[in-house]
Structures are given as C-alpha cells and as structure tokens.
User: What shape does this take?
Amino acid sequence: MLSTPDIIDAYPESQTLTKFRHFGGKKTFHGKIQTIKCFEDNSFVKSELSKSSESGVLIVDGESSKNCALLGDLLAQMAKDNGWSGIIINGFVRDIEILRGIDIGVMALGACPRKSEKKDQGMRNLDIEIDDVFIKPGYWCYSDENGVLISKLKLDLD
Assistant: This one.
C-alpha cells in the first residue's frame, strides 16, 4: 500500500504539496505527470483527459481561482474510463457528491458550483509551479490522505 510518509522517509528529496483536499473515490493514487495551465477555462483539461493514459496523473494549475470549477463528474468519469489514475486541480471542482463515487483520485482546493468558460484557452505539457514546487511533465506524483509527493523520477516502492 502506498504511504507518502514512508515514501518521503525513503526519498527525502521528494517535494510536497499539502493544501489539496480529496474529492474522488480513490484516496491513494500515483503516476507519471502531465500538466495543464489554465485560468477559468477547462477546455484543455477536457482535451487532455479525453486521451488514453496508462495510470497518469494530470496536474492542472488553475491559478487557485475560486470563481469556477475546472473539473466535474463528467470529466472525472471520462478520465477514469481513459485510464488516468488521478487529477490534481490547483483550483476548484464541482459535483462533489458524484465525484466521491468515481474510482479515480481527484484533489483540489475546494468546490464551486459554477462551471468554467469554454474558450479553448490554456497551455499543456509545460513546467508549472504550485506553492514553490516545480512540476514538469514526466515527473511522478504519489498521493494519499497525507498529501502529495512530486518526484523527478519514478520511485522504487517495492
């Protein structure tokens, strides 16, 4: 079983993200990171989650906006169906009562009922920074109820 406290003890060079709350049905997840940066427009989130993934983790820098949700139940279900392990939103989600029943990791700052704009604005596959943690596509994410770890490399957890 994945335990971020055990992982950070073994790999202290891993970076930590602590401000995110769980909203999905899966509380423990990990995978290779893909990134999106967008502000109050989830077009790129939808586009990325519509692609097949081998247990990847999408990290979205929504610039901590509280004005709308960048993910809801339909996108979370699509992500699960396409093989994603988890989604971390530096912003807000909606449909949280339904997200709890979807077997995918979903973490965000909070919930907001308002949906986002759809103007096809954003960027994908770029370096982002959240709370002084630099995250690059191809890094690895390990998450459980203790928090989120970001590693430059896939960790040997056996």
Q: What stands out?
A: Helices lie at 4-10, 43-49, 73-81, 96-99. The radius of gyration is 14 Å.
